[in-house]
Structure formats: structure tokens, C-alpha cells
């Protein structure tokens, strides 16, 4: 097993928790002194820095929210002066004001360090060639992966998203060994390559894919690996925290959260109490080392579970298990919570259909109707009964998982729009 920083990555859990306590205490004093936002928040809650003596006191601290970042737009939560910033990223702002995130040089260094550990854990190093197919610019995905790649000494191809033909050509011509992009876009790359008769399975150099920026299922992982011959790994991050941060290791059993840099809590969204290891709840993160924009008990909005046992790879840091979706990705149909990931998990077990689908939700009178458009892999059959049988199977399996009856519509290959970034899975036409 190869480590980037073996001493830290395999640190005794008791020592690791002690380090978290030390850094949490320092963080609380830092934000209270440097940030008018945090000083006001703490004062309103009757909290003084001296009240926090260890990680065991973390539940005394207030939560922070995405709304706080928008309400203090653009830099009201920053803890440093503009002269200390070396980088600014921002979200798209499609649901309101964009979220602006600043970085000091130490923030950038720690971001790259986090990814260097993850990339090394899946066997990447200075002999590898990484094709970064996440978007560059204000979006954190491309540049985050880029600096992690350079940190481990790999050759980096900053191709960004889009231009699929060029992506495939460079992948072959430059003997790329790893690709980083959204899982839906890589599925599209597989599809285009197969149509052109140059299956990615025939690419002997390509062996690793690191996919994130959208929820994806274990079933899609198996489909990707089967059709491309690579090992597919999950990566997690958000713009507010620093973009991509944590990856799986070769065990493919959870993303290692570097506990020397972050404290992760999984809370019951209703009671806000911690759930047991392995139980699903809302992800809450505290950044221990960020200087420009520290976040304390930040409610990310993702639904996940955590595993604190030592991984078979030897790493002692907690593992964030596969995310089941975002609370804001969830839609309610006839009183039932529905996530796109649930639909994907069903479809990926059916070989006749592709990973591409759309959930169309409309209101018919007082009731909600949901139609799932499912794209066929091919048009191998011309028999109506075959298609009816497939529709019945999909409908049955979806009803079993969703506990909800939905309509299923089969559409021709290539019908559903492809995305170079995050896939759009839900079109909600209801008027509330």
C-alpha cells in the first residue's frame, strides 16, 4: 500500500482525535477574533471561545448555512484581508446570489495536500497522465483536481469539459492513465467511443477514473467499469469547502475524510442529534485549517453515512460512505421523498437501458404524476411485446424502490440531452 503521508494517514485514532481537539480550540479563537460574522453569531448564542475545550464540545457551537454565505455576499464571512487572498472561486448563482470562496496560499496548499493523499491512495503518481475533464474557471472542480495532480508530480492535461471528440483523441494519443470528470459525462464518453468503434476497453493505458460533482450509484460504477475496463472511484467536495477533497481508496468502500483537516458529523436532520455509525443523516462539516473562509458546523445538505473503523487499506481516518443524494435534490411526489439516485440504481441493473434518464413531474388536478423517460441502449427488437415487457419490469422495480407508481416511457438512444457537467435529472413542471 502506498501513502502520500503515512504518518498522518495511519495516525492512531486517539492521537487523531486529540489533534482535532487542539485545532478546533484554535479555530474557535481564530474566527472569534478575525470575523465579525462569527463574533456576532457566537455572542448571540452566548458562546465564548473559552467554552470550547475539546472536540467533545463541538455540539455547543452554532451551525452555519449556505444562506449565511449568500447573506454576507460577497466576502462578509472572510477572516483575512484581500491582500492575503491568492484565489477566489464562486458558485454559478443559479438559485440566487453566487457563493464566493476565498483562499490564502495555505488554503491552496492544504487543498492540494488533501487530493494528493487521495490520488496516491488509488495508485496515481509521477508516472501517470491525468486528464482533467471537470470545468475550469470559477467552478472549483477543474483547478482543484489540477493542483492535486501537479502535487503528486503527475503529468496534467487541463482539457476542461466538452469537446468530446478531442477528449477521446487525446486520451488515446497521449496514453492517459486517469480521467477526472462527472460520472454522467464519462458514461457519454464511453457511448461516443463505442459508436466510433474505439471502445475504451481497448485503451490499454487508461486504468483509473475519479468521478464526482453529482450523486451516482454503485450500479453505475459497475456499469462504467464493465464497459470501460477501468477502476472507478468516488470523489467528494463542495465549492464552499474547497471543491474536490476526498476520494475512495482501492477498497472502494467510502471516501477518506482527512480528520486532521476536517471534523465530520452525521446528524438526524429533524432532531440534529448525531446518528450511529452507518446510519444515514445530514452531513455537517467543520474546517480545521482554512484561513480565508473557515466554516463551523456547516450544514452541507448532503445525505450520507460515516464509518469510523480502520479501513482495510490501513488508513485510520473516517470514511464518508456513498452519498444517497442532496436534501435539495430531493423532490416530493404524492408525499413521498424521491431522489434521482434511487431511479438510477434501478435502471443500472437493467442491461437494455442506458444511464441516461429524466424524471418528468407534473400536476394533474390535485395529484402529482411522474413519468420516467428511460433511454434504450439500442433498438435490437422490433416487437411491441418486448418493449411492453421491459416497461413492466422497469415500472415494477421502480415501484418497489420508490414505494410509488410512476409511468415509464422508453425513448430512442441519444434522445435525452447529454451534459458536460452535472447531469440534469429532474424537470418539475408543477405550479405551487
From TrEMBL:
Pfam families: AMP-binding, AMP-binding_C_2. Keywords: Ligase, Nucleotide-binding. Its EC number is 6.2.1.30. Residues 335-430 form the AMP-dependent ligase C-terminal domain. It is an enzyme of class 6 (ligase). Signal peptide: none annotated. Residues 77-286 form the AMP-dependent synthetase/ligase domain. InterPro entries: AMP-bd_C_sf, AMP-dep_Lig_C, AMP-dep_synth/lig_dom, ANL_N_sf, PA_CoA_ligase. Pathway: Aromatic compound metabolism. One of its GO terms (molecular function) is phenylacetate-CoA ligase activity. Monomer. This is Phenylacetate-coenzyme A ligase.
